[in-house]
Amino acid sequence: MCLTLRKILTMKKLFYSVAIIGAMISTNLNAQDVTKTPPAGDTQPTSLADIKFDKTVHDFGTIPQGGNGECEFKFTNTGKEPLVITNCMGSCGCTVPQCPKEPVLPGKIGSVKVKYDTNRVGPFVKSVTVNSNAKSGVQTIQIKGTVEAKPVEESFPQQKQSNNAPANK
């Protein structure tokens, strides 16, 4: 019985030793740098599309709660190839941008429409990030303003009825 226990312990030691050596080899292989740097002069060409906004900030000023929180940012493709907008993202859920799905040809005009939730009272400054293939890179446009609360409507005060008076219907 003692001999069998010794064989089991020896097998466990052997198993753990092989597992540790295997882990070390695996870690060493993963740590090696296998990326290749491109040879000099073999860089990828930059995009020939570019984007130029007519404005980068829209100031709503003071708008009433529940009012129209929509605006439009027009842009021109000033490059030499089609401009493809890949993503438009608002800085929070209250700012929803809508970007063109189709490529904008060189010299043509496109627009990014932005809608702000005006049920949120108070001042706001929100941004929209526009990702595209433009050589100028990622663009940021901004909306700002103040949403003024609706005035509270007070109902006409009602008169108390006395216990002896009949109720009017």
Short description:
This protein is an alpha+beta fold and 169 residues long. It contains one helix and eight strands.
Instruction: Return the structural class.
Output: alpha+beta
Gyration radius, in Å: 33 Å
Fold-level CATH name of the domain at 51-148: Immunoglobulin-like
* Alpha plus pi helix count: 1
Sheet-strand content, in percent, reads 25-35%
Q: What would you give as the CATH superfamily of the domain at 51-148? A: Immunoglobulins
Structure characterization notes:
It is a single chain. The protein is an alpha+beta fold. The chain has a domain at 51-148: Immunoglobulin-like, CATH 2.60.40.10. The chain is 18% helix and 34% strand. The chain has one helix and eight strands; from the N terminus they run H-E-E-E-E-E-E-E-E. It has one helix at residues 2-31; strands at 51-53, 57-64, 70-77, 85-90, 95-98, 109-116, 122-132, 139-148. The strands form two sheets. A four-stranded antiparallel sheet has the order 1-3-6-5, with no helix packed on it. A four-stranded mixed sheet has the order 2-8-7-4, with no helix packed on it.
Give me some keywords for this one.
single chain, 169 residues, alpha+beta, Immunoglobulin-like, 4-stranded mixed beta sheet
Q: Could you outline the blueprint of secondary structure elements for this entry?
A:
Blueprint: H1 2-31, E1 51-53, E2 57-64, E3 70-77, E4 85-90, E5 95-98, E6 109-116, E7 122-132, E8 139-148
Parallel strand pairs: 2-8
Antiparallel strand pairs: 1-3, 3-6, 4-7, 5-6, 7-8
